[in-house]
Amino acid sequence: KMADKGVVKWTYSTCGYCSTGCSIEIGTNAQGQPVASRGVGGADVNRGKLCLKGIFEYEVFEATGRASRPMVRDTIHEAYAPTHWDTALDKMASEIKRIQAKYGQDSFAIVSTGQILTEEFYTLGKLVRGVIGTNNYDGNTTLCMASAVSGYKRSFGSDGPPGCYEDFEHTDCLIAWGSNLPEQHPIIYWRLKEALEKRKFPVIVVDPRVTIFAQNADIHLPITPGTDVVLQNALIHVIIKEGLEDRDYINANTNGFDELAKEVENYDPTSAAKICGIDEDTIRTVARLYGKAKRAMSIWTMGINQSTHGSDGVVGINNLNLVTGNIGKPGGTSLSITGQCNAMGTREWSSCSGLPGYRALEKPEDREEIAKFWGIDPEFFPKKRGLTETDIFPAIETGEIKGLWLVATNPMTSMANTPRIRKTLEKLECLVVQDAYYDVESSQYAHIFLPAGIWAEKEGVFTNTERRVNLTRQVKQPYAESKSDMQIFNELAKRFDNGKVIRFPERPADVFEEMKQLSKGRLCDISGMSHDLIEQKRGIQWPYSEEKVADNENGSQRLYTETATFCYPDGKAKLIPLPFINNNEIPDEQFPFWLNSGRLVEHWHTRTKTGKIGNNNKFSPIPFMEMNPDAADEMGIKHQTYVRVTSRRGDAVVMAMLTQRVPRNMVFIPFHFFDCVNRLTLGLLDPYSRQPAFKQSAVAIEHVDQD
Ligand code: SF4
């Protein structure tokens, strides 16, 4: 088959879509054009398999909408004028300097992504902190992973997923919280199925929808949206009441048990059932399964993270695992399934609160160490924590921020409350959009557009959900006149005074060497890795120090072991009481349905790529809404007819798909489509992580007359 496609060369890479981190090879023909993709057989993660997105990933290189030249304009009401790179970058640098001189150093903000390479995140962090001199810099990962980061830090003293996919092969019980693996992470689901074929263990899925995962689970818990913490407290209540907690582990490894035990006293299954909607006998059954299992693990995705209780939901999962002694042993873990291919890269190497190698911006010793390493005055460093993406947009509304640079992210489609985001972007004095596709919706409001290369037009690494650093080699040069994101960062840096002082290596492998030095002795130690070794081993899990190379080890499957200490000064994890306060927008008479949103297997985020690939787009070319047939019947709504969905923010017209997947009081709309579900979402924020609650808004439905 590959001979038919004319493949003459295969190049090693890592899939640029989701955080599973599949090793992939891209086949190019004699003209150097990508014409095929295939999974890499010897890779630990995917063992030769790819999902629908990976199989057709070679088509993204030349998909419709690839941007070929930089473009500029003075106002957003004019047409863009194609221009040269020097003109675009000069204009960008002078706009940043003008805005900072007029309104202050922090009046220009940057929002990046989880899609670019780790060497690029590191370089962007250096540019933003060391050259532009602001900390109003965040990743769009605040929309998907911030609650996991916050929850890990609160429980264990540091971010960093403790487990790995191999844990499926050792566990005796698994709870999946708000995660639809078969659609969102199909290859991780395949790994789970493989483990289940070898050894049966109970799989419990907590999700208000009857997802494909829920359908295939042993027990489905159709929870009331936003009440996971209540269920977690009730499970711990039963575990303690029935003496199923692991006292030895608790005494040796945790603080705060008595306070937690006191709090969960309030969550007996009878009372909890009334709030979380799961009957009390089922709560007891699940608690016993988890408490009695020799090794038990929990995984979760956006159903936990995208909530006003997102951070608490993660802490609740950690509480459950710590009380049952399930952190640090094979098959016993809290594993957050990340979203984007390199969401972990932003966490390790830069974000609004972090400096490279999980250093903290708030710590003077960390700032001084990085300033010395980069060769700049520590006084230049922004010292206070910056704004998250979700706080940057309100700061534009109030006039605190006047300029914004978006790197491979598309808030016009991805942020909650689209009507408000549109007005916000229109207020900016300067918006720079850096993206591979000129038709990304946010570019409608940009003054400067910079065309960027996509994943395998560059070389560098991603970190996946299980801390595995994997490599992408360059398959081809960036499209037309576009440049790699790192080239763009480096060339912008030269236009600032500090940018002439700080070293910005041009080769990704040299940047990686710099990162290795900074990682030595840190939790995310990568000092034993090199691009070549990573390719040879098909990915290596951090921490991976030079000593591990000497011992010929493959990487660290687990972050903590039964004897290794957590990251708080006394080496113990924290058990944290979680009182539940209901603070969602709850359905009422005017807006009687819960609105839930999520992914489809064939699409990726805002469809800038998959919306143009025939084999992906043909399955779901238009937005739709899942609605329960009984609720639809009461309202005279028929299958595949159009309805208007209204919230307090706006409205959207979508096709109704009648299905038992959603309960009577809920509708579900995929989040991939422009001017659709996020016209309706409220996006209240989690107080710790500032992550929005995309899945808990209230809406009304009306039939649209089609005659
Ligand atoms: Fe790519 Fe994720 Fe599919 Fe693997 S599961 S091929 S990483 S999109």
From TrEMBL:
Cross-referenced Gene3D superfamilies: 2.40.40.20, 3.40.50.740, ADC-like domains, Dimethylsulfoxide Reductase, domain 2
Annotated 4Fe-4S Mo/W bis-MGD-type domain residues: 8-65
Coiled-coil positions: none
InterPro entries assigned: Asp_de-COase-like_dom_sf (IPR009010), CT_Nitrate-R-NapA-like (IPR041957), MoPterin_dinucl-bd_dom (IPR006657), Mopterin_OxRdtase (IPR006656), Mopterin_OxRdtase_4Fe-4S_dom (IPR006963), MopterinOxRdtase_cofactor_BS (IPR027467), Prok_molybdopt-oxidoreductase (IPR050123)
Keyword Iron assigned: yes
This protein's GO CC annotations: membrane; oxidoreductase complex
EC main group: oxidoreductase
Xref: SUPFAM superfamilies: ADC-like, Formate dehydrogenase/DMSO reductase, domains 1-3
Domain of life: Bacteria
GO BP annotations listed: cellular respiration; nitrate assimilation
The EC number(s) this enzyme carries: 1.7.99.4
Cofactor: [4Fe-4S] cluster; Mo-bis(molybdopterin guanine dinucleotide)
Keyword tags: 4Fe-4S, Iron, Iron-sulfur, Metal-binding, Molybdenum, Nitrate assimilation, Oxidoreductase
Transmembrane regions: none
GO molecular function, one term: metal ion binding
UniProt similarity note: Belongs to the prokaryotic molybdopterin-containing oxidoreductase family. NasA/NapA/NarB subfamily.
Protein name (database record): Nitrate reductase NarB
Species name: Methyloglobulus morosus KoM1
Gene giving rise to this polypeptide: narB
